[in-house]
Amino acid sequence: MSDENDFDLRPDEWEALKALRSPFAGLRIPARLALDHLTALGLVTFDDRVPAITDKGRKALVRGSFSLLDAAA
Q1: Phi then psi dihedrals of residue 27, to 5 deg
Q2: Is-contact 28 12, C-beta < 8 A?
Q3: Closest alpha carbon to 44 in 3, 8, 14, 4
Q4: pTM for this one?
Q5: Would you tell me how many other CB atoms lie within 10 Å of the CB of residue 68?
């Protein structure tokens, strides 16, 4: 059974989502390719050419954090 909130993202896409949690933290700007894919999935949106994480992106990040921890164990 597949959950609509489960995403198989590449490591650079996870890093892009994490970087967008606090856009003013001085983190490096994520790669454009990752942002394009995240936008297509509805995890990121652009407001005046500035990327921002969506509610769906926040949920995916939280859910993905647990699956990433399981994979690392």
Answers
A1: -80, 160
A2: no
A3: 14
A4: 0.59
A5: 14
Around Cβ 7, how many Cβ atoms within 10 Å?
A: 22
| Token pair 């454009």 in the structure block, residue | 32
Give the model's pLDDT for residue 28.
Answer: 57
12 close to 34: Cβ distance less than 8 angstroms:
yes
> Under 8 Å CB-to-CB from 25, ≥6 apart: which residues?
19
CA atoms within 13 A on the CB side of 27: 14
Confidence (pLDDT) at 23: 58
Give domain limits for the chain: 11-72
CATH architecture of 11-72: Orthogonal Bundle (1.10)
The pLDDT value given to residue 27: 45
Residue 8 DSSP one-character state:
-
Mean residue pLDDT of the chain comes to: 75
